[in-house]
Design a protein that fits this description.
Layout lengths: L6 E24 L3 E6 L6 E2 L2 E3 L10 E3 L11 E5 L6 E9 L4 E5 L11 E5 L2 E2 L5 H4 L5 E3 L5 E4 L3 E11 L3 E12 L12 E4 L2 H16 L1 E2 L10 E2 L11 H14 L5 H13 L10 E4 L8 E3 L3 H18 L2 H19 L25 H21 L2 H22 E2 L4 E2 L11 H9 L8 H9 L2 E2 L2 E2 L15 H13 L3 H12 L38 H11 L1 E3 L6 E4 L8 E8 L2 E10 L4 E19 L4 E5 L2 E2 L4 E4 L2 E17 L1
Parallel strand pairs: 25-28
Antiparallel strand pairs: 1-12, 1-13, 1-14, 2-11, 2-13, 3-10, 4-9, 5-8, 6-7, 6-9, 7-8, 15-26, 16-17, 18-19, 20-21, 22-23, 24-25, 26-27, 27-28, 28-32, 29-30, 29-32, 31-32
Helix pairs in contact: 2-3, 2-13, 3-5, 3-13, 4-5, 5-6, 5-7, 6-7, 7-8, 7-9, 9-10, 9-11, 11-12, 11-13
């Protein structure tokens, strides 16, 4: 009825979904207005009003002027607080959005001065989407006159839907649902899979894979004919090169050929928007406010280099030589663009931004390591599909950068690399993590770097560095934490890698967490939550546990393009068993292992496709005996420290490590 409290129904789908919501009505009376809003987290499906009282209001009043009428709802509680005064809480009986006044009961008990703050609870229905970036979503408003189906607009990612009757009238519902429009993978679609004795790790692997499925835009959706990998399900819904570094390996090791077209067409979009000077945009299709195709955003030289690496990753995992050969001239142009940021010290200076959006000055350690990685990746690519002579030049330049980083940016007092020449005493996670992963750390100094990184740990993951935060306030980046887990795995610190995984991603796979979506989150703040409604809770750059559990814990990595050569080197730690499959251009690699740290017994079985070859490395201890298919390992093995490596061709193998 007029002046009544709006009636609402909240629907919880239990996990992240995406598509077009619909409502089936069986009866309509009066002239109701229905509003439907969606959110990834329940706490963001209503927004409390937050405003002030612009003019003094006398005691006994029931009508109060407000500076803003946004997010008011009849039936909400409203609290007025004067400076130094006692809060006064009342109930909203009505409001006038045009006049910006609110009517309350009971009457005010005392004079209310101008400037008093105003808060409401629980707030009015609101969308958590950023429509200017995503170009889709926002509230759906209906004015039904008869029974039938009402269909809303497209919403890229949400767990909750709130349906509200906000004007006099009533409706009867028979159903409320969603036409799912992300990639709906069935068990048959998982060409790659992972399963271990650790349930939390299993949930991480599948949450990362599901995150990627929520990030996939099908051909034809939103008026765009091609398939694309977006950074987030609800925001920004754009291709981002930094995100692709995690998304491509995760997608191709889980969905294989079903995911490859999404990668290829996203790379095509990068090629189509490359600048004349060689730079790739950080996002080729950013900000869809007026155009569903978006427009290129040239974010930073760092993100341009990430774009180059995305092409290399596509080739490494698929072996699509025709595609990469055609793209090579564009990649060489991009490399020349990145090269323009080297100074006389062989270090990168760009005063540019990176994934946490802050400008960094001086010779930035991470930026120099990033360019080193680009050079090494291009050297691998040229030797595989291009010019070995160019590869030699790239390697020479990379070594000069590595030497310069060590001589100028290593801080012996920290036992780690400083953030930059401008901030040599600031320990940062990303640069030191990459230094471990890519062999920058001097021999014997790895433990110091690992210890320095651990000073950044919190119960919720590692912060970026002391005093560092994104301009929007978050301090813990799953993207950066993924760099650290990779660095720890690469130096044999499996325990540390899994510990950090559990801190960072464990809460995300906990169904009791109020932010749970079944997918991975874009970032965290210092208390383990997120600090704004538009934070993405299904964000591809956070999916690194999936690929690392496949490549580091299970142990299967590509070496040659398309896995023509491969490496299988499990890092079991204290995990008791793991099994999985990895799709390749030559067939599926299947492997499983069991691990008994107490007895020292480790058993690994491998099935690798014909036409491929690789190395199998198993952990050993003092006095270990290694057998291959029931026989002594023989001359094909090489013992290094605590492991034994076999060089083999495709086929079936059972390797057992036992104590004498």
């Amino acid at each position: 009825m007029a002046g009544g409290t709006p009636a609402s129904v909240l629907l919880d789908f239990g996990k992240e979904i995406g598509g077009t919501p619909y409502v089936d009505l069986t009866r309509v009376t009066g002239a109701p207005t229905l509003t439907l809003v969606t959110a990834e987290a329940r706490q963001y499906i209503r927004t409390p009003a937050s405003t002030t009282v612009p003019a003094a209001v006398p005691r006994g009043s029931t009508q109060v002027p407000l500076a803003s009428a946004a997010n008011l709802e009849t039936g909400n509680t409203i609290t007025f607080t004067a400076t130094g005064g006692t809060p006064v809480t009342r109930t909203i009986t009505s409001f006038d959005a045009t006049a910006r006044t609110v009517t309350v009961k009971p009457a005010l008990p005392a004079d209310l001065p101008a400037g008093a703050t105003v808060k409401t609870s629980p707030g009015a229905p609101s969308s958590d989407e950023s429509r200017g970036l995503a170009g889709v979503g926002g509230p759906d408003t209906f004015q039904p006159t008869a029974a039938g189906r009402l269909t809303g607009g497209f919403h890229g990612g949400f767990r909750f839907a709130l349906l509200t009757v906000s004007t006099p009238g009533s409706v009867s519902l028979s159903s409320l649902g969603v036409n799912f429009q992300a990639f709906r993978a069935t068990p048959a679609d998982y060409q790659g899979w992972f399963l271990s004795s650790d349930d939390q790790l299993n949930r991480m692997w599948y949450s990362g894979a599901y995150t990627l499925q929520m990030n996939l835009k099908a051909p034809g959706l939103n008026g765009l004919p091609d398939a694309r990998i977006y950074d987030g399900a609800k925001r920004d819904r754009s291709i981002w090169t930094g995100d692709l570094l995690v998304q491509i390996p995760t997608l191709l090791t889980s969905l294989g050929t079903a995911g490859a077209p999404y990668v290829k067409s996203s790379l095509d979009t990068l090629l189509a928007t490359q600048r004349a000077d060689g730079a790739f945009p950080g996002s080729p299709d950013f900000s869809k406010r007026t155009n569903p195709a978006g427009s290129p955003l040239f974010y930073s030289n760092n993100y341009s280099g990430y774009g180059l690496r995305a092409f290399v990753d596509y080739y490494r995992y698929t072996g699509d030589k025709a595609y990469i050969t055609a793209a090579l001239p564009a990649l060489r142009k991009e490399l020349a663009y990145n090269d323009s940021f080297l100074d006389a010290d062989h270090l990168v200076v760009s005063n540019d931004r990176d994934y946490w959006q802050a400008t960094q000055t001086g010779e930035v350690t991470k930026y120099s390591i990033d360019y080193y990685i680009v050079l090494r990746e291009m050297a691998w690519l040229e030797r595989t599909a291009g010019s070995p002579a160019l590869a030699d030049g790239y390697d020479t330049k990379a070594e000069a950068i590595k030497t310069a980083v060590m001589s100028k940016l290593w801080n012996p007092a920290l036992g780690a690399y400083g953030q930059s020449s401008a901030k040599p005493d600031v320990v940062v996670e990303d640069a030191n993590a990459l230094a471990l992963q890519y062999g920058f750390v001097p021999a014997g100094q790895e433990a110091k770097v690992l210890a320095a990184l651990k000073t950044l740990w919190t119960p919720y993951g590692a912060i970026m560095g002391p005093g560092l935060q994104d301009p929007t306030g978050h301090t813990i980046e799953p993207f950066g934490n993924g760099m650290e887990t990779a660095g720890r795995f690469s130096t044999g610190d499996t325990a540390g890698a899994l510990d950090l995984m559990r801190r960072t991603w464990g809460p995300m796979v906990d169904k009791q967490n109020p932010l749970y979506t079944g997918a991975f989150w874009e970032f965290k703040n210092s208390t383990g939550g997120v600090n704004r409604a538009t934070a993405s809770l299904a964000h591809g750059w956070a999916a690194s546990p999936s690929v690392q559990l496949t490549e580091q814990l299970l142990g299967v990595k590509p070496v040659g393009a398309g896995y023509q050569t491969w490496s299988i080197a499990p890092n079991p730690g204290t995990v008791r068993s793991a099994a999985g499959a990895v799709p390749t251009a030559y067939g599926t690699i299947k492997t499983q292992w069991t691990n008994d740290p107490r007895s020292g017994r480790f058993t690994l079985t491998v099935q690798a496709p014909a036409g491929t070859s690789g190395t199998i490395t198993v952990p050993t201890g003092r006095g270990s005996v290694v057998t291959v298919n029931g026989r002594d390992s023989g001359p094909r093995t090489k013992s290094t420290g605590g492991s034994v490596t076999l060089n083999v061709s495709g086929g079936s193998y059972e390797i057992t490590v036992s104590q004498r």
